[in-house]
């Protein structure tokens, strides 16, 4: 099985081109290939599938049937084998692969919600819906990608979180005997955001799994601790559901930007500083969607026996 290792600000995944390859048991492959000692090493496995294919496998020919809705389909599996709805850093890398390997033609120039014009664009189908991506190019090489991550959702049932009301903002929950105020946001997948004064001092390996598996979160949850530096900038650290501590989380950065704006800590346009790098976020007033802009890089290619 051919694979490509790619990363977006340190959030690294193994990608398999399912226009050409077949992955019979992606959950098992994700667990084995993600192992950083006995496998390739990654935060998970992402399958690049034809837009019309419901399963991970090649179509009858290498040219997928045309789809008005999407140019490719993303399936994302965490390092523990669980399938997730979306991955912000992963989808930027997927778009780079699709464009550079000519799996789909660009839909042409696009102006995104951050009011920037991009010379090429794609639509990618995910479990969180079909997303539009604007590609920043140098020749035929995709260097950075802007993703319309969609509208954030706040209702507890949509996240999901077992709490009453229309939203969960600064709600105290008991974590290992401490009451920590949490703000919950769905970006197509669930996020719990905690603001703190010193993000570097948080014992993430201690609090992360306790929050991820808290009884309030029936589908588990992605955990983020955030230190606001200015109205335009914040630092964050992440414990990802099913993967543990990661260098970055794209959907999480979007959720943190939304939570910071909701609570008056930041403006709607801000920069997230993650251990692996920076992301530009803009919660647009035009369409209420969150736009994420950041790099996508190939690391290496290989063959998995």
Task: Supply database-style keywords.
305 residues, mainly beta, Diaminopimelate Epimerase, Chain A, domain 1, 2 domains, 18-stranded mixed beta sheet, two-stranded antiparallel ribbon
Short description:
The chain is mainly beta and 305 residues long.
Mind explaining what this structure looks like?
This protein has 305 residues and is mainly beta. Helix content is 14%, strand content 41%. It is built from four helices and 20 strands. A hairpin with a 2-residue loop joins strand 8 and strand 9. The longest helix has 13 residues, at 88-100. The chain is globular and about 50 Å long. Residues 54-67 have low confidence and may be disordered.
Q: What can be said about the biggest beta sheet?
A: 18 strands, mixed
- Count of DSSP strands: 20
The CATH class of the largest domain, by name, is Alpha Beta
In whole angstroms, how far apart are the ends? 6 Å
Secondary-structure element pattern, one letter each: EEHEEEHEEEEEEEEHEEEHEEEE
**How much helical structure, as a percent, in the residues?**
10-25%
SS summary, helix count: 4
Count of folded domains: 2
Structural class computed from helices and strand pairing: mainly beta
Mean pLDDT: 94
CATH superfamily of the largest domain: Diaminopimelate Epimerase, Chain A, domain 1
